[in-house]
Hints:
Elements: E1 24-26, H1 42-53, E2 58-65, H2 85-97, E3 101-107, H3 115-118, E4 122-124, E5 133-135, H4 138-157, E6 162-167, H5 172-176, H6 192-195, H7 197-209, E7 215-220, H8 229-241, E8 247-251, H9 270-273, E9 281-285, H10 291-300, E10 304-307, H11 309-313, H12 317-320, H13 335-340, H14 345-354
Parallel strand pairs: 1-10, 2-3, 3-6, 4-5, 6-7, 7-8, 8-9, 9-10
Helix pairs in contact: 1-2, 4-7
Amino acid sequence: MPTSPASLTTPLDLPHGSAWPNRWTLAPLTNKQSHPDGTLSRDEHEWLVARARGGFGLVMTAAAYVSPEGQAWAGQLGISEARHEDGLARLADGIREAGAVSSVQLHHGGMRADGSVTGLPVLAPWADADRGVEQLSTSDVRRVIDDFVHAAVRAQRTGFDGIQVHGAHGYVLCQFLDARKNHRTDEFGGSPENRSRALREVLSRIREATGPDFQVGVRLSPEGYGISMDDATALVGSLLSSGDVDHLDISMWDVAKAPRDTTVDGLLIDRFMDLPRHGTRLGVAGKILSTQDAAWCLERGADFVTVGTGAIIHHDFPRLAQSTDFVSEAQPFPRQRLEQEHLGGAFIDYLADNWDDFVA
């Protein structure tokens, strides 16, 4: 039976922790508003809390680095040090008081880290001499896994309801999944099981280290980055059945797209919706810009939708989307309009520098 748009407002129960008030989640959007030491800024606090006030059921931070050498850009939020805790605690309180469930996205840049920002060597699953990248030793990999776990414990200690592990978009855990380049000879390379080991160990150890009310999520790329369709499907299926994950978000860039692999029929979203979930909640992200876009995703079988661009333009996207004909306004926007949507100057500059059609 087709899902009506009203279903977007239905609370979502998860295996652990509080139910989400609705099916709307805020994408973990890079905004470059943190202080140089990774501590939370006033602008970043207001950007996120405004989305909680605007009706998002789950409000997610931008990618927060779990290891000092894993920082991938200036202005990135940190969760690697004790100095980050005060700001994180204020943010968790602010999101909760505004009525949303809170989560920190845990991240390590790996090959995409910025050594000019960190002042540290760039470490990745394999070396790249031309780019000055050094290979993580087996003990280094173990230490990075530990850093993810410690960051999750820090998130729980500072009052967050959960975390999401960033396993997508070519960052370190996604790099391990790359069949083209991960030819490591230890237990973290070669076979699909070994290439996914770092991600699976991060998730299982976070589940063990955090309390029964703490939510553990993961974000994955379903194609590209050296990940075949078969490998992606098998990995998603394995994580859904693992008992380690409360929610899994598939970042598709466009929820209505066909797979890049032309031998695969149908739409990319349909490749994953029929997998047994074992209680884990499955969501999708990519060009969800209207009520009907979101309702269509639920009709295809998604449990929740993750909104990025639309959430930048409308801090109250979920409330506006209670109208069945709501469509997000088209870009570009003057700076003043974006300021009214609670974006700080650094975020607006980032959008202007990286997208030709976002800032008028």
